[in-house]
Amino acid sequence: MKRKDEMPNRFLPREKHSHPLAYFPDYKSSIKRSPQKELLKFPTTPSEESGPVFSPSIIGELDNNLILNHADDGKSAIGQRLLVFGTVRDQHGRPIPDTLIEVWQANAGGRYRHKNETYLAALDPNFGGCGRMMTDANGNYEFHTIMPGAYPWPNGPNSWRPAHIHFSLFGEAFAQRLITQMYFEGDPLIGLCPIVAAIQDEKAVERLIAPLVMEKTVPMDCLAYRFDVVLRGREQTLFENRPEGL
Amino acid sequence: MKKNTLLEETASQTAGPYVHIGCVPNFAGLQTVTKTDLGNSLNIDAFGGQEITIQGKVYDGDGASVLDALIEIWQADGFGIYPRGNTDIAMPSNAYTGWGRCASNLETGEFIFKTIKPGKVIFNQDQYQAPHITFWIVARGINIGLQTRMYFAEEAEANKTDPVLSSIKDQSRVQTLIAEKTSNGNYRFDIHLQGAQETIFFDF
Ligand SMILES: [Fe+2]
């Protein structure tokens, strides 16, 4: 049996205030799909402190280029060209290397490539809307895409989603599993969206809004937006609290 | 000791109804990034444990099956060891993966996993957890992924002393975590988001 000091540390409890309410009637779908009983609180066990590890070999050359990965030879997706980049860290600020990120989004007109999609905006034959990548040794990631369009959705009589990109992250343990959405600085629809408003903490909302970063834009090519992600951290051991070098 | 300042977590947001595009693109009809969807197979042949099939549906508060759910499982192998262990087994490889992902059928809501029965998993130096499989459920209307566990009815002894199950105050709800054995090697595990049979969800 493993000694205690060989076992991974427990994770810090989830910060309730940083997350949306499960039941938020303004977002109609949450009414019948949110647990009504209190969640059972329990410290993480080895079942949550472990998680799947993905090999970088699963990633294809164009997986992180949504402008090209569904386009015919010599063609590219229509829309404002973007570089989206950032760093994945835990709550202690440690970068999380080699972790899988999956992204999906609507096309420039706000339409998804999906059989259940009914919005009248046109499909772009050269845009699929799906990408994935691994963080590098320093927790950094980047992908190229186009600016997704805002789209209407059946919630209220006239509801529109702000432009967004969906992100799925694994971290290094199943306790860190997260799906979220990245929004764009300056989008007036963010403040009108009940999916966003389910998050009560304004600062937590702000952290989902990617700023334009001029230094990372590529002249005559693309604009750049930064989206940094923070996943749950583990409880720290005494060893880890020692200053480096000791 | 100096108290560390912690960064605040990135908020969860719903996976929405089109989660398939990013997580199971082939299921969505997209061969953009991959020919087979990740998590489609747990590579059970590589382990050779007791093969099992788990089928179920996710039900909403009206008792309707959720047709746009994405379900992931994470479990130990037959010896109770999580595939990563202390080694760096990268997936997919020839190793049993322990991780599966399945979208609910768009018409019926049914999900299915072919896996192996996990062994008892370590809890601490002196205690084990009963064999169980971690479930993680996202869908439109679910603002933060829901985590629960599936246990096995035939493990009554181990279930009795399981540290998680025995911490449940209302023991009448424990049965929401126990899969129904429909035939040898086949289990049914339905997940109820609300209502009288609401599944116990965890805040681990
Ligand atoms: Fe969306």
Task: State the main characteristics.
heterodimer, A: 246 residues, Protocatechuate 3,4-Dioxygenase, subunit A, five-stranded mixed β-sheet, four-stranded mixed β-sheet, B: 204 residues, mainly beta, two-stranded parallel ribbon, 2 helices, globular, binds fe (ii) ion
Radius of gyration of chain A: 20 Å
Overall SS class of chain A = mainly beta
Compute the number of structural domains of chain A.
1
Gap from first CA to last CA of chain B: 27 Å
For CATH, the homologous superfamily of chain B is named as: Aromatic compound dioxygenase
**CATH homologous superfamily descriptor of chain A:** Aromatic compound dioxygenase
Helix/strand order of chain B: HEEEEEEEEEHEEEE
CATH architecture of chain B: Sandwich
Element string of chain A (H = helix, E = strand): EHEEEEEEEEHHEEEH
How much helix, percentage-wise, in residues of chain A? under 10%
Tell me briefly what this model is.
The complex is a heterodimer of chains A (246) and B (204). Chain A is mainly β and 246 residues long.
Report on this model:
- The complex is a heterodimer of chains A (246) and B (204).
- With 246 residues, chain A is mostly beta strands.
- Chain A has four helices and twelve strands.
- A five-stranded mixed beta sheet of chain A has the order 4-3-8-9-10, with no helix packed on it. In chain A, strands 2, 5, 11 and 12 form a four-stranded mixed beta sheet that branches. In chain A, strands 6-7 form a two-stranded antiparallel sheet.
- Chain A is globular, with a radius of gyration of 20 Å.
- Chain B is mainly beta and 204 residues long.
- In chain B, the strands form three sheets. In chain B, strands 4-3-8-9-10-11-1-5 form an eight-stranded mixed beta sheet. In chain B, strands 2-12 form a two-stranded parallel ribbon. A two-stranded antiparallel sheet of chain B has the order 6-7.
- At the A-B interface, strand 1, helix 1, strand 3, strand 4 and strand 9 of A face helix 1, strand 6, strand 8, strand 9 and strand 13 of B.
- Strand 1 of chain A pairs parallel with strand 13 of chain B.
- Bound molecules: fe (ii) ion.
